[in-house]
Amino acid sequence: MPSSALMTDLYELTMLAGYYEHGMCEHPASFDLFFRKNPFHGGYAVFAGLEPVLRYLEELHFTETDLAYLESLNLFKTGFLDYLKKFHFRCTVTAPPEGTVVFANEPLVTVEGSLAEAQLVETAMLNILNFQTLIATKAARIQQAAGEGVVVEFGLRRAHGPNGGLSVSRAAYIGGVRSTSNTWAGQVFGIPVKGTHAHSWVMAFSTELDAFRAYAEVFPDSAILLVDTYDTLLSGIPNAIRVAKELRAKGHELRGIRLDSGDLAYLSRQARNIFDKEGFPAVRIVASNELDEHVISSIRDDGGKVDIYGVGTELATAGGPGGGALGGVYKLVSFDGQPRMKTTSDITKATLPGIKSLFRLLDSDGRFLQDVICCKGEQVEAGVTVFDPVNPSRHITVPECQVTDLRSKVMEQGRVIADLPGLDDSADRCAHQLKCLPEGTLRLKNPHLYKVSISPGLHHLRRQLMDRYSR
User: What DSSP state is assigned to residue 180?
Assistant: First the structure.
């Protein structure tokens, strides 16, 4: 996980140097972190990465080595470098718990403090939260597609570097993929680790049967045999059946087989029929090979009998339409106690001004109705008119409902003040909240668009500032 104060874009430091020269470093400022579009053309995102962000912020400081490097750039004056020697993060951070289901344009994290401190952390926060939120969302989509099937994260070899691999395992767990092939993640985070063997194991022996027997001898109670090295139906499965019978004769049971190529729906159906007919209904069928939520959904629609899905590349790289990166941004919303906003001819790129609250409205059964973004101190209640943030001419009236604040202060004066949930709690939160979404929100294609509105006060403030800036 990141620990260097230099994990930042150069422009953060040049802006800080400018603030320093103009005496602005200690002016109060607030920034919001949010994203503009739900990833994967989907209906939601899963917030993840908060704990790594907070640990980074607590430890943030410039070492002598950092300062020597900055001096070598010949960009910064001695006075500014002396200022950085004493730099520490002392801001207040407000955020939802990890595992919270969130949506586009909502202020996820708000940082309040001095301009210099709140500005410097932009890049690192976006780096951590964008990626882990993206991966947690992808994992949730994949697990939803798998239904009652188990998903194992196989992504380390395709992840974006070692820390990327760790981040994938952590975020995927929050999204609902609760096991990994990454033994380092198992050590660091306590995530259950799972795995089988590669084709090279089979090819290292004279025959496939010899390879299966050798593996089962070493792991008699946990053997999962990869059956597609030569021919799945004519060789792999018959040899796995033979080894399963030999294991049973010795008081053990074959755990499963893995399919890594071919028509996975057809092969899994055939494998299930064969193993059931031979008296091995408990043998699990594992499938891998460039799986994602769409492929898994197709396998299930085609009557596939897969019990466990090993998902690697598409999960670790957040592949697929609308994936690859979460477009999270970090924008100034208040300076010297006055609201600030970015205005543009494209209202979808305009920001929401001021320090805000984020409320979720629930019906009597606890199902989510919509979210409302308000000015700080403003409340939401039945009968209030709220507005579409992208098309203000569209508005609705808040019905009788429960109202809950999605965020809370998690850091004050640069120190964590909240009891941060463990990974299991975050994953449970995600699973529960996904069940509370309106019907259709989880659809992989053309999902229901969950309503995110702005309050009357925020609507009025934004119009005021847009009118002022236009003049």
Answer: B
Closest listed residue to residue 167, CA positions, set 121, 128, 139: 128
Q: Is 468 helix (H, G, I), strand (E, B) or coil?
A: helix
Nearest Cα residue to 141 out of 177, 185, 109, 90: 177
pTM: 0.97
Token couple for 394? 């569209």
Token pair of 465 as six digits: 């500032």
- Span 134-183, pLDDT tens digits: 999 999 999 999 999 999 999 999 999 999 999 999 999 999 999 999 99
Work out the pLDDT band at 393, boundaries 50, 70, 90.
Answer: confident
Residues 6+ apart with CB under 8 A from 406: 96, 100, 102, 106, 358, 359, 360, 371
Burial class (CB in 10 A: 0-12, 13-18, 19+), 250: exposed
Tokens 């119009």 sit at which residue?
Answer: 463
Contact 43, 437 (CB under 8 A): yes
Residues 6+ apart with CB under 8 A from 155: 165, 168, 169, 172, 181, 182, 311, 312, 313, 315, 316, 317
**CA 25 from centroid of its chain's CA atoms:** 33
**Which domains are seen in the chain, by residue range?**
10-135+323-470 (3.20.140.10), 138-316 (3.20.20.70)
